[in-house]
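Note to self: keep these together.
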Amino acid sequence: MTRALVCCALLAFSSTARATYSIVARDAKTGELGVAVQSHWFSVGAIVTWAEPGVGAVATQANAEPGYGPRALALLRAGKTAKQALDELLAKDAQREVRQVAVVDARGNVAAHTGKQTIPFAGHVVGDGFSTQANLMADAAVWPAMARAFQSSTGPLAERMLAALEAGERAGGDVRGRQSAALLVVGPERDGEPWTHVRVNLRVDDSREPLVELRRLLALARAYQRANDGDAATARGDFAGAARAYVDSAHLAPGSDELAFWAALAQAAAGHVDEAAVEMQRLFKLNPGWRALLPRLRATDSPGVPILQRKLALQPAP
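Structure:
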């Protein structure tokens, strides 16, 4: 095989390998921006998903050029619309006909491109504040099904985008099957610290059921977000509010002994000492590491620490 044929073969393999289906969207109520994806390719989130708070979100796939992500965001940051940014990048790309790219900006403008040489079934649907796109699918119904699911769903942006992916899977999904998925949501705030406005950032790099795992992780992320509410309440001295938030978080993730531990401390701080002590004893049996940790903590970690140390007759660490 000549070098030219080898290069063509590698290009074809790359195009196949990057096939996937995704959604980019903006929540009109909250201003959140997001991108979600599933593919039969390892760690698809490292290639496809790009977003910046208050700027936009990008999905770059098919024979993916990851540079479309940061370059499109830079153009949006400079004031370009989604269409202007995408048109500028496509005009400079000699391989644009094997690309599939979608962009949404902070104002909800959307632009998408499916190259003429992307492997069928391939296409996209642009709607109000969103775009669904797919290539190398088992059926041409995939991206329209995703669009309908997103439009008909309610709730937070992350859950709506995940519903779109699940609808795409039910409609046939990737002709090769499935391996990885990712979900990225950022807030509407645009400032010098964009990392502080990432709302959801989840990746399933290798799984037989990546969307099942992604939904589990999203539920766990929501539980930890509720625990963060508990941290904020504790900092304000609202121990009753902190207890409610921590208990909520533990209920949202019943298999998490981590969240149950901090919920018990918050309950002790709120005056529910006996109940907290019983729960802490359960955790000690479940994982002896919690018994080792509690004496090392101080009241600055949680006001419930000295209360439970006394109740359980645990000597504080020096």
